[in-house]
């Protein structure tokens, strides 16, 4: 925007705004007179739909136009400050001579007011646009935890965090990203716990972003990842305020993006994607069992179809004789090799899952269930696939649903195809080689300098009490050392272990 300051003539200011915003029908211009300010003419500019009509009347027009008994001399040096203190009933009023700042506030939902002969504009908070009410999380359901979730308003989301963390050191650093959208972003962290090196690196990466639009937190995620070509996400996404607050208290940073109900958590480690909020609301024995169950689901979702291809096509001697004969008899008449069978069923299942997501919810659920039953049964009866393969593909798909982080399940679905193709070409060598390749890739990943598989490092003993095993809450005295938190202890050094009374 060209360098332009506020004019003392109302018509000049009005024409400048019209020149910048064009003849948009939602930009409203309201001219009025202020009796208490020497009957000066004034101009209020706001965008219909972003402001509340009640706010415009109650905090701006009625107080300024109805007070005739009071008088403020416009020639005094602090006359505008007197007018703001006596005539405007608003939670926030600022002044500026810079038209860029004024127009940015106007497009964000504020009202800007110009007064004749005054070379400053007032920014009055009148935001009153419609927003979605708080509701239960749709993708991260919890049995015992909180039932609220983030929404599309950045201020509502920061309030949800403030309600849970009433710490003096909680910070919300604000910035704007996107040359045209000017999207508000907030970085939430606890100043006395967060790793300052990670915070500095995050700010550097955000400041390097030069893009027209940021419409969702996914835009930011893609722009700041360490390894953008990796299938595995290095930033966690959540819609649960309690999970975000737990991450902040661990020493992590969350990124809140306006107009997005999903916040970003960083840095992360791989095993964090297999931890659910319910793990911290249930007994530690149950949480540990469920985490190992999810690890088993991880292995099954990636390997079941490949194991079937490997055993049927290359290594029949590894099967018990009765089972090998049953598989051979069930595949009698199947014209395709096992690798094509598996690929056909995997692709069909992915198509049904995608169709179920994109269709209206009542119809999508029916398509997912009925389609799987009908197509699977029809494919077996037609002699295109064997019945054991249908069981394997179904088990692989169900296992992928057991992983709490939905973004990670996408990665595992694609990884499954890679392992399947390698196994279909090279047999057990391809199966083992692809597994080793994926493991080495995970070992090479970093999330803002943090090792992706670092919590299983035996040197980092403080990080192992909350990975595959969930220790009791009173036993987790320290934060994980892998994140580099400034404060090591999260509770008293003496511990809070409950004990029976002696008598």
UniProtKB/TrEMBL annotation:
Q: Give the record's GO biological process terms.
A: spore germination
Residue span of region Disordered: 483-503
GO cellular component term of the entry, any: membrane
Family, per the entry? Answer: Belongs to the GerABKA family.
UniProt lists the gene as gerKA_5
Compositional bias ranges of the Basic and acidic residues kind: 490-503
Q: Which Pfam families match?
A: GerA (PF03323)
Instruction: Tell me what this protein is called.
Output: Spore germination protein KA
Q: Where are the transmembrane segments?
A: 253-274, 295-314, 363-382, 388-406, 418-443
Q: Name the keywords, alphabetized.
A: Membrane, Transmembrane, Transmembrane helix
Source organism phylogeny: Bacteria, Bacillati, Bacillota, Clostridia, Eubacteriales
């Amino acid at each position: 925007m060209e360098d332009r300051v506020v004019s003392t003539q109302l018509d000049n200011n009005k024409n400048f705004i019209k020149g910048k915003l064009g003849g948009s029908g939602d930009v409203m211009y309201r001219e009025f007179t202020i009796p208490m300010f020497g009957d000066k003419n004034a101009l209020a500019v706001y965008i219909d739909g972003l402001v509340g009509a009640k706010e415009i009347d109650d905090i701006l027009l009625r107080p300024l136009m109805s007070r005739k008994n009071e008088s403020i001399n416009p020639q005094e040096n602090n006359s505008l400050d007197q007018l703001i203190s006596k005539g405007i009933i608003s939670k926030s009023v600022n002044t500026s001579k810079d038209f860029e700042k004024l127009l940015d506030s106007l497009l964000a939902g504020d009202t800007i007011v110009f007064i004749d002969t005054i070379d400053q504009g007032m920014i009055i908070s009148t935001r009153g646009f419609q927003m979605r009410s708080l509701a239960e999380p749709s993708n991260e359901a919890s049995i015992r935890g909180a039932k609220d979730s983030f929404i599309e308003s950045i201020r509502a989301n920061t309030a949800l965090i403030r309600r849970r963390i009433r710490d003096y050191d909680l910070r919300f650093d604000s910035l704007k990203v996107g040359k045209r959208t000017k999207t508000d972003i907030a970085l939430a962290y606890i100043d006395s716990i967060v790793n300052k090196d990670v915070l500095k690196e995050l700010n550097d990466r955000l400041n390097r972003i030069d893009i027209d639009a940021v419409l969702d937190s996914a835009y930011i995620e893609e722009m700041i990842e360490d390894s953008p070509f990796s299938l595995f996400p290095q930033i966690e996404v959540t819609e649960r305020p309690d999970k975000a607050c737990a991450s902040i208290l661990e020493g992590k940073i969350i990124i809140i993006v306006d107009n997005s109900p999903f916040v970003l958590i960083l840095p992360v480690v791989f095993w964090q994607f297999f931890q659910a909020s319910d793990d911290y609301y249930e007994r530690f024995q149950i949480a540990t069992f469920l985490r190992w169950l999810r690890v088993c689901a991880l292995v099954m979702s990636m390997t079941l179809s490949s194991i079937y291809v490997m055993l049927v096509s290359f290594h029949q001697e590894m099967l018990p004789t009765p089972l090998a004969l049953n598989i051979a008899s069930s595949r009698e008449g199947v014209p395709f090799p096992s690798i094509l069978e598996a690929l056909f069923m995997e692709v069909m299942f992915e198509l049904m899952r995608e169709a179920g997501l994109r269709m209206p919810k009542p119809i999508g659920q029916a398509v997912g269930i009925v389609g799987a039953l009908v197509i699977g049964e029809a494919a077996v009866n037609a002699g295109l696939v064997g019945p054991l393969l249908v069981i394997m593909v179904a088990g692989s798909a169900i296992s992928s649903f057991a992983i709490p982080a939905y973004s990670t399940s996408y990665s595992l679905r694609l990884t499954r195809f890679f392992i399947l193709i390698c196994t279909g070409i090279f047999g057990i060598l391809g199966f083992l080689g692809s597994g080793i390749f994926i493991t080495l890739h995970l070992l090479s990943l970093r999330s803002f300098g943090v090792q992706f598989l670092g919590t299983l490092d035996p040197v980092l003993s403080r990080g192992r009490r909350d990975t595959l095993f969930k220790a009791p809450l009173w036993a987790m005295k320290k934060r994980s050392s892998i994140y580099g938190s400034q404060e090591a202890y999260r509770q008293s050094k003496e511990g809070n272990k409950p004990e029976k009374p002696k008598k």
